[in-house]
Amino acid sequence: MSVSRGWSQNAIYTTHAWLREVLKSRCITRDLRWGVPVPHEKYKEKVFYVWFDAPIGYVSITSCYTTEWEKWWKNPDNVELYHSWARTMCLFTLESWMLMKTINVTEYLNYEAASGYGSIIPDAEGAESHSLTKALGEKDGSCVQKYIEAMEKVKLKQGLKDAMSISSEGNRYLQESQFWKLYKEDKPSCSIVMRTACGLVYLLACLLEPFMPSFSREVLKQLNLPPETQLSLSDEGGEVENSKRPWDILPAGHKIGTPAPLFKELKDEEVAFYRENFAGSQADRANRALKALRPNRWLNN
């Protein structure tokens, strides 16, 4: 099934399970509250399932970027197609005309369970002999290597986990360094910690760009780096050793931009809004809308 061994185990298991059951006809509608309504009186409370026509969309969107789109879809010896889907997508996207060598299948998302230095990056002289910082660099280098291996195998969940490990290590590093005390008692060490922390922020922007590109763009802005900056984990020679030296990623003297919160807390009313607008079915929405239109009637005893 997977000659190049590029399919994730989840993709293989899911496909085998369907083949064992014998392929069946699949409905192309869903009872959702959002989507394209089915233009038929009998199915007016249903919407088209997006994957009914989405596969051809991959081809058509390619033609929007280049007139040589056929070279991407009819050149299997030089072009490899990568996809990452939820498990239910396998059946709709494993068409013979777009069969890919590499496919990553994920499980479902359960969204309800689940100052002093100003803005100038200081020098970090002596960082390699700073035990806490050196240990952090070794951990970061290991995490980055694992991240690269996971992403090359399209193990996106593991890649994200490895990236977030660096975030956790960075938080621990800041707490253990007690930089607020260093600022008063040991300015050189505080400079090392601050410059290292700025390098970690850039490193995280690189690692998380495939998952949250808007986050990475905002980080570049706050680091005062041009928006056209090409985020990269490697140096000019293609090596990623700089991930072991986060204190060297951004130069001393670089002036960062204005810091601002990158994420906001979801209030209860916002959660309720999303649940109201995106959960349930077309029929549920229609019934609630109908009730809202009915006049209130009061019975007097």
From TrEMBL:
GO terms for molecular function: ATP binding; methionine-tRNA ligase activity. Transmembrane segments: none annotated. Residues 5-100 form the Methionyl/Leucyl tRNA synthetase domain. InterPro entries: Anticodon_Met, Met-tRNA_ligase_1, Methionyl/Leucyl_tRNA_Synth, Rossmann-like_a/b/a_fold, tRNAsynth_Ia_anticodon-bd. Keywords: Aminoacyl-tRNA synthetase, ATP-binding, Ligase, Nucleotide-binding, Protein biosynthesis. GO terms for cellular component: aminoacyl-tRNA synthetase multienzyme complex; cytosol. Pfam families: Anticodon_3, tRNA-synt_1g. GO terms for biological process: methionyl-tRNA aminoacylation. Residues 127-282 form the Methionyl-tRNA synthetase anticodon-binding domain. Belongs to the class-I aminoacyl-tRNA synthetase family. This is Methionine--tRNA ligase. It comes from Anisodus tanguticus.
